[in-house]
C-alpha cells in the first residue's frame, strides 16, 4: 500500500508519531558492494510477514458511506475518488495510520495528484507514451495514477497496496467508477485509447516478498532468471512503467522498495515515476533520500522533472528513474 506520513514540522496542536510500514520490523539492507552504505542494515525480522495475495475485482466491498467525488487534475483531466474512513473499513477512529493494521491508503495524498499531472505533461510533451504499456502502481491507495494510465491506453495495470482492505473498499471501486465514467463519456468516439480492455489486477502485501507474486523471474521457456537487474543479461519482460506516490517517507522501507522495483522493472527501457515530499519531517525519509539511495547503487539515472511548492505542505517533487 501507500505508506503515509505527515506533511510539515510539528505545530503545538498536532503530533507526528514515528510510525512505519511493516518493513520497520524487518529492516532490510541491500548490501551493495561491501555490504555497507547509506541504507545497509543488519536488523533481523521480529515477526513473520503474511504472504502476498492477489485480490480479485469480485471481492469489492465498498462501504455504503462512500460516494465518488470529482478530482480536478487540470482543465483536461478530471478523475473520481471515493471517500472512505478508517472507521468504515477497520472499525477504528479516523487516522492516517494504525501501526500494524492500516498503512494510510485511505487518504488521498498530494503526491498522487502531482504524479497524474506530471504523467499528463510528459504525454503532452511527447516524453512518454502509455499506449500498450504494462504499468505497476506501488502503494496505490486511491489508485489515481494507475487509473489515469488505464484511460491513456495501457495494456496492463497492476495495483499494489499493503492492505487488502484498501484494495477492496477503495481502489477497486475507484477503478470501476472511473472506467465506467470514461466509457460513457466516450461511447460515440471511435478511436479511443482504451478500445481494448486492459488487464487490471490487484495485489496486497509487503514490498519485501511482493515480487514472488507480482513477477516471476522466468523466461517464457521456464528458465529461471537472476533476480534484480544485470546489465549483461539482455532484456526481459517486466513492467514498462512503475508508478509510486508518497511511498518514500521512511528510511527503513527504502531497501525493500528499491529491490522490488529492480526485480519488476523491464530492462533496459523501463522507467519509474516517483512523487513525494522532499523531506518528511519526523520520519526521516523523502525523495532526496531515495535519490541518494539510487545513486549509491549506481544502476539507474535520476532526473527531477517537477517541483511543487504551493504552501499546502513542504516542497514536493516528481522524479524519473531509468536504467543506465
From TrEMBL:
Record-given protein name: protein-histidine N-methyltransferase
**Family to which this protein belongs:** Belongs to the methyltransferase superfamily. METTL18 family.
- Quote one Gene Ontology molecular function term: protein-L-histidine N-tele-methyltransferase activity
GO annotation, cellular component aspect: cytoplasm; nucleus
Location in or out of the cell: Cytoplasm; Nucleus
Record's signal peptide = none
Key words of the record? Cytoplasm, Methyltransferase, Nucleus, S-adenosyl-L-methionine, Transferase
Which EC main class describes this enzyme? transferase
**What is this enzyme's EC?**
2.1.1.85
SUPFAM superfamilies documented for this protein: S-adenosyl-L-methionine-dependent methyltransferases
**Biological process, per Gene Ontology:** methylation
Taxonomic source organism: Dioscorea cayennensis subsp. rotundata
Q: Tell me which Gene3D superfamilies the record gives.
A: Vaccinia Virus protein VP39
